[in-house]
């Protein structure tokens, strides 16, 4: 007879998610068989192939970059969600990390025709309250290069819609990141 008395979810996943929610103010979701897709879906993903919470990412870019024109914010969003299959995963991750840390380079044209350059912030490293922290248990993910490569992650943590590589051995008592 199967019981969930000592299930992995009860002993580890839910415990960690509850700690993140109760002690640190994270939002917590259980996605297994409950997730709905689309812009109004549970997490704002279009499909199991999305590893980014698009709705949260778009909102964060707008919130953190109010002085950038809409076209620059959209350019930043597109750069963050695009997958370049010509590059290796390591190259893609290195660029994504740089965007997170330094901002996404964007270009726009002013009404007078002048071309401007700037960076769109994705995470506010100075004020954690300006970010949205979400922990998702049992998140289904599908490989992009190999579509039949399906996984269900125990816990995926997102900051402003971007997933964070997260280890349970990391000190969970802070929202301030390096």
Distance between the termini: 47 Å
Number of helices: 4
Radius of gyration: 18 Å
Average pLDDT for all residues: 85
Overall spatial form:
globular
Strand content: 15-25%
**Sheet with the most strands, sense and barrel status:** 4 strands, mixed
Helix percent band: 25-40%
Oligomer: single chain
Number of strands: 6
- In N-to-C order, the SSE pattern is HEHHHEEEEE
The strand order across the widest sheet is 1-4-5-6
Low-confidence stretches: 166-178
Question: What does the model show?
Answer:
- Residues 166-178 have low confidence and may be disordered.
- It contains 4 helices and 6 strands, in the order H-E-H-H-H-E-E-E-E-E.
- The chain is globular.
- The chain is α+β, with helices and mostly antiparallel strands and 178 residues long.
- A hairpin with a 5-residue loop joins strand 2 and strand 3 (115-120).
- The protein has helices at 8-24, 54-64, 70-81, 89-102; strands spanning 27-30, 104-109, 115-120, 133-142, 150-159, 162-164.
How is this structure best summarized?
The chain has 178 residues and is an alpha+beta fold.
Features:
single chain; 178 residues; alpha+beta; 4-stranded mixed sheet; two-stranded antiparallel sheet; 4 helices; 30% helix; globular; disordered C terminus
Topology:
Blueprint: H1 8-24, E1 27-30, H2 54-64, H3 70-81, H4 89-102, E2 104-109, E3 115-120, E4 133-142, E5 150-159, E6 162-164
Parallel strand pairs: 1-4
Antiparallel strand pairs: 2-3, 4-5, 5-6
